[in-house]
Amino acid sequence: MSDERKLEAFHASCQRRILGIRWFHRVTSAEVTSQTEQEDLTSHIRRRRAAVFGHVRRLPEEAPDRMAMRLAVDSRAGGRTDDDPHWKRRPGRPRHTWVRQVEFDTGTSADVAWDIAVDRCSWRALRPQLTDDDDVESEMQRSHSFTRSYRPTHCTVGY
Predict the structure, then answer these.
(1) What's this model's pTM, rounded to 2 decimal places?
(2) Which terminal residue of the chain, N or C, has fewer Cβ atoms less than 10 Å from its own Cβ?
(3) What are the distances in angstroms from CA 110 to CA 70, 121, 159?
């Protein structure tokens, strides 16, 4: 069972507990989700992961987290910081990294995603399946009490 399915099962069980639904009620997870009107957890995680990637990309050059992400993107693209001729990859299957997951979520390679994420509008246009305009707007209003006048007017995608 994949991690995403485990998270979704846990999320459904929490929703069932909140709603007071027991196992003998025979209610499907789809019915519980429609009753609570919550988005599924994996799409929320994908949206937030892409948002963090874009945020880190737009940080100043000297920021340590941006430098670390740049190193991860460069190593994923095949570039190495040191040219040690005796270096060998560790044996076994390559690890499923956070940057590789961003590649899977966005459908592009890490270096292309890195270049696109410079511009917030282009980055949001790249990931339309990850953001729903109404969800982003309501989430921003709930969490930060932003108003429409505070948002940049040059970008219409994702707002």
Answers:
(1) 0.69
(2) N
(3) 10, 18, 25
